Amino acid sequence: MTPIHTEDRIADRIEKQIEINAPVSRVWRALTNHDEFGAWFRVKLESPFTVGEEAHGPITWPGYEHVTFRAVVQAIDPEQYFAFTWHPYSIDSTVDYSEETPTLVEFHLEKTATGTLLKVTESGFSDVPDGRRREAFIRNNEGWAQQVKNIEEYVTQKP
Q1: Which of 84, 91, 88, 87 is CA-nearest to residue 31?
Q2: Model pTM?
Q3: Mean pLDDT, to the nearest integer, of 102-112?
Q4: In angstroms, rounded to a whole number, what is the distance separating the alpha carbons of residues 122 and 13?
Q5: pLDDT at position 138 over 50
Q6: From start to end of the chain, where are the E strands?
């Protein structure tokens, strides 16, 4: 009998968290000031974050300079919650991703005894087209692991 192979199921969400030795107000500024966000996330955003508006600009991460970051800000709840939607791992400039359902990226901040607990969640991978879902999930999972380190390093080096 020939075994049936099924692709491993990809989870619908990525969750990362990090405790940062800095006040909530400092971490919040690094998240929501478009210039500071750009510094640690490595993107040159063209304008401030505004709810309901697209934030966009060239990615400055080596090897991805040909990609334009595009995200629509969904919510800004000062010093607590920031969220945007985007098309995960949309790096092929010949593909129109606009017809795809975007994923939701959420940042939650909580005060701790030593600073700030930052939780990052990206959900909605089950809506990413089959041909892109696995790669998008894997790349973004790796990406968020790096980005939480980047924001921690940024905030602690620039108090």
Answers
A1: 84
A2: 0.93
A3: 98
A4: 5
A5: yes
A6: 13-20, 54-58, 68-77, 81-86, 103-112, 115-123
